[in-house]
Specification:
With about 120 residues, this protein is mainly β. The protein contains no helices and eleven strands. A hairpin with a 4-residue loop joins strand 7 and strand 8.
């Protein structure tokens, strides 16, 4: 059974940094598409970043240049380094496994296994 577990969330001031981790069990991340999503209260869930079996990464426009997604094949984890955090980045962050080994879209229906989420808050 494939399971995903997020960690690393917390509260920081705007301009600060956090690193989220997605620990994957039951599968090898080098064969998977893994993405990070977020959902703020009252807003729809949105895709943030993804990385696939070829280590091709994609980002939504609002985080490009500030967030970096990476794979740690030794620990079977996918990390999301978040720098220059803004108040609008505040949300629950989820990692998810794509249905295919390539990450084609950020459509939620293209992802079949989700973690429980970790809260990220950027505020004064």
């Amino acid at each position: 059974e494939v399971q995903l577990a997020e960690s690393g969330g917390g509260s920081v001031q705007p301009g600060g940094s956090l690193r989220l981790s997605c620990t994957v069990s039951g599968s090898t991340i080098s064969n998977e598409c893994i993405a990070w999503f977020r959902q703020a209260p009252g807003k729809e869930r949105e895709g943030v970043a993804s990385i696939d079996r070829n280590r091709i990464s994609q980002y939504t426009d609002s985080v490009r240049g500030r967030f970096t997604i990476s794979q740690d094949n030794t620990e079977n984890k996918v990390h999301l380094q978040m720098n220059a955090l803004k108040s609008e980045d505040t949300a629950m962050y989820y990692c998810a496994r794509g249905k295919w080994s390539r990450c084609y879209t950020f459509a939620s229906d293209d992802y079949d296994i989700w973690g429980q989420g970790t809260q990220v808050t950027a505020s004064l």
